[in-house]
Amino acid sequence: MSEYSPYHLLQSPSDKEVGQGSLPNVHNNQEFNDVQTLTNQIKGLYLSPECSDVTLIVDDKRFNAHKTILSCRSEYFRAMFFGGMRERQDAEVVLHDTSAPAFEILLNYFYTGKLRFNNMKLNLFLDVFGLVHLYGIKKLEESMCEYLKHSLQVSTVTVIYSTAHLYALETLMNDCLEFMDRYAAEVMATDSFLHLTGSGLLQILSRNSFCALELSIFQTLMKWIDCHPEEENMYNSLLQQIRLPLIKLGDLMEVVRPTNMIEPERILDAINDQISKRTSDLGYRGFKKLNTNVVSTAMGAKVIEGQNGDTIMKPKDDQKIEIEKCTCHEVAIQDQCITVELGRAYIINYIELHMVDRDQRLYSYYIDISMDGTDWVRVINYNQFYCRGKQKLFFSERVARFIRLTCNRSSVHTMFYISELKAMYVSESPELHNDTIIPVHNVATIEENAHVIEGVSRSRNALLNGITENYDWDNGYTCHQLGSGFITVQLPQPYIIGSLKLLLWDCDDRRYCFTIEVSHDNEQFVKIVEGRQLQSWQTFYFKPLPVVFIKITGTRNTANEVFHLVHFECPADPRNCHPSSNVAISDVNTYPVIYAHPDQQSSQT
Question: What angle, rounded to 10 degrees, do the helices at 138-149 and 122-134 form?
Answer without folding.
Answer: 150
